[in-house]
Design brief:
single chain; mainly beta; about 5% helix; globular; Aldose_1/G6P_1-epimerase
């Protein structure tokens, strides 16, 4: 039986359910073009979706892989994390093969986005489930007549069994901006990143793949086009202040995000840019 793509109702919102012959599954919400679930073959859920997430069609959904564009976090004058995660997308392509499923969701400017960010653009998110791999690709095209610049991220919430026991490898020697410590620039000198307190770091110029060790589960994390890696966990106090997170939610999630945060990406009229994050169940 080949892979399938079905339109489903996911907590009251339209979504696409992807499934492969080998048993991989994913759910992508049309609202925000947001991946909400990914289960590799013979495995368990690898993305964290808050059980208190709001699914009202207007609020950002806490968890999965929100798309941040054209602004990451509060690095500018636009709404935090930009304008896509709280807007509906349209299905541009669906394709299946013997053991893969692919969907592409599209955003373009509207009167509402123009009032916030007056630019002509096309932003497409392509999600591919193939074996034990999830590829998420963001492509941005400047369809206007003047240059624009943006920051962006795939705000990936990874599910971990216990965040204090998780180990993230591959960031040794990189400089990072520590937003949990007054935006100081620091250098990572440890063999692994261990989360034992509030963590909010933007690592710069990361070119090598990362490995997340979570008990007997390993996850490879690769990025292309995105120069930065964000590592975030709100920890106990900040998590308790989030209405759409359970009090202990921080213990079961770790955000490892492909990002273009330190320097803006500049596109001339007619130019496009592509960034990708790949998660590989090992």
């Amino acid at each position: 039986m080949p892979a399938t793509i079905e339109t489903i109702d996911f907590h009251g919102q339209p979504a696409l359910a992807l499934a492969t012959q080998a048993g991989a599954r994913a759910v992508v919400s049309l609202f925000g073009a947001q991946v909400l679930s990914w289960i590799p073959p013979g495995s368990e859920e690898r993305l964290y979706l808050s059980p208190a997430a709001v699914n009202d069609g207007s609020s950002a959904i806490r968890g999965g892989i929100p798309v941040c564009f054209p602004q990451f976090a509060g690095l500018g004058k636009l709404p935090k994390h930009g304008i896509l995660r709280t807007r509906p997308s349209v299905v541009n392509e669906q394709r299946t093969g013997d053991d893969y499923a692919l969907v592409t969701l599209r955003f373009t400017e509207t009167d509402e986005t123009w009032a916030i960010w007056p630019q002509n653009f096309v932003a497409e998110l392509t999600v591919v489930v193939d074996g034990g791999r999830l590829d998420v690709e963001l492509e941005v095209e400047n369809t206007g007549h003047a240059p624009f610049a943006f920051t962006a991220a795939l705000h990936t919430y990874l599910r971990v069994r216990e965040v204090e026991n998780a180990r993230l490898e591959g960031l040794y020697g990189h400089n990072y901006r520590d937003s949990a410590d007054h935006d100081r620039i620091k250098r990572d000198s440890g063999d692994v990143v261990v989360v034992e307190d509030e963590t909010d770091r933007v690592y710069h110029d990361v070119k090598r793949p990362l490995l997340l060790r979570d008990g007997n589960r390993n996850l490879g994390i690769n990025a292309e086009g995105f120069p930065d890696v964000v590592v975030w966990n709100p920890w106990e106090e900040r998590c308790a202040a989030l209405a759409d997170m359970p009090a202990n939610g921080f213990r079961h999630m770790l955000c490892v995000e492909a990002a273009a945060a330190r320097q803006r990406i500049e596109l001339d009229a007619g130019e496009s840019w592509v960034g990708r994050q790949s998660l590989i169940a090992l």
